[in-house]
Specification:
GO molecular function: glutamate synthase (NADPH) activity; iron-sulfur cluster binding
Enzyme class: oxidoreductase
Number of strands: 16
Distance between the termini: 53 Å
Largest sheet: 5 strands, parallel
Domain 4Fe-4S ferredoxin-type: 32-64
InterPro entries: 4Fe4S_Fe-S-bd, DPD_II, FAD/NAD-bd_sf, FAD/NAD-binding_dom, Helical_ferredxn, SudA-like
Shape: globular
Mean pLDDT: 95
Strand content: 15-25%
Protein name: NADPH-dependent glutamate synthase
Bound molecules: flavin-adenine dinucleotide, iron/sulfur cluster
Radius of gyration: 23 Å
Helix content: 25-40%
Length: 461
């Protein structure tokens, strides 16, 4: 008999006041008893609507069934058949808009907590150290550029099919946004390392400090590889273009989060990268990046952190859980507000921000209601740190050094729909480099799809 409890089994979490002062993980994970209780809420529906909501098609009812039976390592293996980074997806996927949105239990009550169960199975499976699958070499070589979720999932899928895979990563640590963007308290870096180690154990070769376009161009790589995949992400920060953005104390969210997460400024002076955070910080934007920047600013000692967002609460694009956690931790929100100028003091540092109130007009091209400034509503917000989190564009170096690679006006690499082929023969692309800033699982889905297409191309060759 299924467990007909209407609500999800609650997730144990660190206390909001305590966690505002540390970088340890906020959500603590299910115990085995909680996981089995939650798994028993699944009805094992024959038509599996949840699976259709998952961009990589995880066999959700099957892995949940293993948890019901206490077969946790098997649950992990079932997930790994289609998802090479389950401990990460279980933590950061926007499940409420994907698998859980389609769950039948969500019609009357809350959906099954699929993400939490995926996290549980992955953590258990990794503890049990499931052996890597046997691989039959096929003698062909593929270069993967970028080691974010797109590159890693492409590399894992190709390796499983027997390809020798070299991943070229520009930074000194692999993982992309998973290591330089998403903070430790949401996604522990030891766990990302473990996931990457399991790819290495399969034979994926990851080369760091290799900026493609500098140490070698894409064309040069193609001379020694049978095919290539570009998963170089969207790491070029955007600014509003308002006066004062060059003042001291103004950061792009990318720089701010990279200093804190990748360079571990939160553990200064054990790690030598500093980051200056004042008492009153403002974060401009409303996505996951803005929530992460705000919650990091709080943990770095800011006494008052305000998210300034030009639309309303209903339009916030961040994951529901991150918004909830940010509120619990005391982050303030100023909705329908847009900065127009950042004001500096004589010392060259930020002292305030001029803002204007907004109202929502007719829907724009994105389908969301367009924010319009209310005349005469200007006001000044005293702040000493400003973090700009209004979006990122694709990294431009590879297109700049590959004349035949077609890009969109806004910088995204052009790919053929359905095949992810670029304009350069034998080269495929996916993830944020193609779509602009999106999600981990969409990037992973693209990496996997590209691996299928590369396999098709090279099997016919
Ligand atoms: P990336 O993760 O950006 O990886 C690209 C990699 O390519 C990087 O490591 C980069 O160094 C490398 N690279 C770039 N150029 C070169 C080059 N020339 N040579 C070699 N290497 C190169 N999504 C979610 O689903 N849930 C979340 O909660 C979430 N939170 C986020 C929080 C933050 C702060 C940010 C920034 C993003 C967040 N996202 C979230 C979005 C998600 O992380 C991205 O959509 C995803 O990481 C994109 O994967 P990718 O592999 O395409 O690119
Ligand atoms: Fe289980 Fe929900 Fe998927 Fe049905 S839709 S199989 S109840 S997780």
């Amino acid at each position: 008999m299924p467990n007909m409890q209407m609500q999800k089994t609650p997730m144990p979490e660190q206390d909001p006041i305590a966690r505002g002062h540390n970088f340890q993980e906020v959500a603590l994970g299910y115990t085995a008893e909680m996981a089995v209780n939650e798994a028993n809420r699944c009805l094992n529906c024959k038509n599996m609507p949840c699976v259709s909501g998952c961009p990589v098609g995880v066999k959700i009812p099957s892995f949940i069934d293993c948890i019901k039976k206490g077969e946790f390592a098997k649950a992990y293996s079932v997930i790994r058949e289609t998802n090479s980074l389950p401990a990460i997806c279980g933590r950061v996927c926007p499940q409420e808009n994907q698998c859980e949105k389609h769950c039948v239990r969500g019609i009357k009550g809350e959906s099954v907590a699929i993400g939490r169960l995926e996290r549980f199975a992955a953590d258990e499976g990794m503890r049990a150290q499931v052996a890597p699958p046997a691989i039959q070499e096929n003698g062909k070589r593929v270069a993967v550029i970028g080691s974010g979720p797109a590159g890693l999932s492409c590399a894992g899928a190709l390796r499983q099919k027997g390809y020798a895979v070299d991943v070229f990563e520009a930074l000194h640590t692999p993982g992309g946004v998973l290591v330089y963007g998403i903070p430790e308290f949401r996604l522990p870096k030891a766990l990302v390392e473990k996931e990457i180690d399991s790819l290495r154990a399969m034979g994926v070769n990851i080369l760091v400090n290799r900026v493609v376009g500098r140490f070698a161009t894409l064309d040069e790589l193609l001379a020694t590889y049978d095919a290539a995949f570009i998963g170089s992400g969207a790491g070029l920060p955007r600014f509003q273009g308002i006066p004062g953005e060059n003042l001291g104390g103004v950061y792009s969210a990318n720089e701010f989060l990279t200093r804190i997460n990748l360079m571990k400024a939160y553990d200064f002076p054990n790690h030598l990268t500093p980051v200056r955070v004042g008492k009153r910080a403002a974060v401009i934007g409303g996505g996951n990046v803005a929530m992460d920047a705000a919650r990091c600013a709080l943990r770095m000692g800011a006494e008052e952190v305000t998210i300034v967002y030009r639309r309303g609460e209903a339009e916030l694009p961040a994951r529901a859980e991150e918004i909830h956690h940010a509120k619990e931790e005391g982050i303030r929100f100023r909705f329908l507000t847009n900065p127009t100028e950042i004001l500096g003091g004589e010392d060259g540092y930020v002292r305030a921000m001029t803002c204007v109130e907004m109202e929502l007009g007719e829907p724009d091209a994105s389908g969301r209601r367009r924010p319009i400034a209310r005349p005469g509503s200007e006001f000044t917000l005293p702040v000493d740190t400003v973090i700009v989190a209004i979006g990122n564009s694709p990294n431009p170096l590879i297109p700049q050094t590959t004349p035949a690679l077609a890009t969109q006006k806004w910088g995204g690499i052009v790919v053929e729909e359905g095949s992810l082929k670029t304009s350069v023969p034998r080269v495929y692309a996916g993830g944020d480099a193609v779509t602009g800033a999106a999600t981990v699982i969409l990037a992973m889905g693209a990496g996997k799809e590209a691996a299928e297409e590369i396999d098709k191309l090279l099997s016919e060759a």
